[in-house]
């Protein structure tokens, strides 16, 4: 058996082990084997990374023009593309996701650096006509040291969207990826050095959330924090950052409704609805985890969805199945417990996907499930499952559709399926969500589209130019010159 590959932190351009000397095992979700180790970092490593980032703000990185920063990011995008196959295979192995999804993720990661690289020198401040004999300039400046706590579901994509915007705006970054998915962020950060990013502008500290993550969120040396993950941890990091008055962007997941009216084009809608929950084994903040169906077509839709669910194949990511394993044994136990609880509360499993015979027994597989008769107040109807579980509910008329759609604590994304354009727009206005899709579903949408939540889905926006602006602050310079 080959020995596990040892990975290090990236601090100030150096690949370093954790100060603790401790390591974390990296487990392959497809079969439960350990194939690598990561440093189990502590406060001392976070201190070193924040200091390296601060130093970069006084070195060559700070002296680069916005155009030069943009060129570095464009070169990084090209390097990611050149290493596409290697990175996709790494993402597939580390997270378990199907290889075709991993390829999409690496393409998206490259696209974030391309997009923000191109935008770097189009970001500028403004002037304000003020008192006679004065000139007022509003400068748009980087925050300084930005902290990025990245989850395990889309490590390469979320790394790209977060770090791409922050670097384009001239910040220096400290990243804490999730202990279950550090490998592509580490590899892409090494490529960033090759692309000409000065050492210290991008630092990656691996470790446990409760140790390295908590140390970063509470660090007095950071100037901005971007977090994607659970509501509970998001609340904790925002509280920790508040002590230092550090602004925070929170992206905390959702309970996205797919609203299907009787006049919808079901041939177009149903494959998208299935994909919206099966993609990445349902471990997606914008997973379409509820399908709300107008009562007159409810049974037909359920029957057609059941046929699609039964045909889905769950297996090893490398074999390009419809659904890969979940990220970890812990996540598998969580999702299974939620399904059990839903069934105990009266939910009916209408259909279950197949598990491929060669999916190893030691892997973390959970074949997608379609539920009906789930009580509306059950936690599976209200809260994220973060697994491939779709719950169907019937509604009568627009008002009830809106009431159900808005009837959870979340408000990240939603979809409306109807041929009635006026109704689609009425619903788009009434639904409480950061993104509403009409007759399509983007599961997070494109890189160019502002993304973020309402209610308990969080605040602030990532992606798009809005995401770039969120990595800056304003400085007003008022000159009285007569
Ligand atoms: P967490 O929210 O705990 O993890 C997200 C990130 O925060 C990881 O990098 C994690 O590191 C880090 N973290 C954990 N605890 C702390 C802390 N005290 N201070 C600072 N950072 C911390 O999610 P889980 O992995 O526990 O998943 C639980 C549930 O969260 C999922 O079932 C899902 O519902 C939701 N979730 C939502 C995501 C989304 O995209 N909206 C993404 C991931 C999870 P580490 O992993 O090393 O502990």
Question: Can you describe what's shown?
Answer:
It is a single chain. With 482 residues, the chain is α/β, with parallel strands linked by helices. It folds into two domains: 5-252 and 462-477, Aldehyde Dehydrogenase, Chain A, domain 1, CATH 3.40.605; 257-442, Aldehyde Dehydrogenase, Chain A, domain 2 (3-Layer(aba) Sandwich). 40% of the residues lie in helices and 22% in strands. The protein has 16 helices and 25 strands. A seven-stranded mixed β-sheet has the order 16-18-19-14-13-21-22, sandwiched between helices. Helix 3 (66-82) runs antiparallel to helix 5 (99-119), helix 3 (66-82) packs across helix 7 (183-194) and helix 4 (84-95) crosses helix 5 (99-119). The model has no long low-confidence stretch (mean pLDDT 97). Bound molecules: NADPH dihydro-nicotinamide-adenine-dinucleotide phosphate. Residues 149-153, 176, 178-180, 208-210, 213-214, 217, 228-230, 233, 236-237, 251-253, 285, 334, 384, 386 line the site of NADPH dihydro-nicotinamide-adenine-dinucleotide phosphate.
What is the CATH architecture assignment of the largest domain?
3-Layer(aba) Sandwich
Evaluate the radius of gyration.
Answer: 23 Å
How many β-strand runs?
Answer: 25
Helix content: 25-40%
The kinds of small molecule bound in this structure are: NADPH dihydro-nicotinamide-adenine-dinucleotide phosphate
> Would you state the CATH class of the largest domain?
Alpha Beta
Query: In CATH, what is the homologous superfamily of the largest domain?
Result: Aldehyde Dehydrogenase, Chain A, domain 1
- Main beta sheet: 7 strands, mixed
Q: What is the overall pLDDT average?
A: 97
Category by helix and strand content? alpha/beta
State the shape.
globular
CATH topology of the largest domain: Aldehyde Dehydrogenase, Chain A, domain 1
Question: What is the helix tally?
Answer: 16
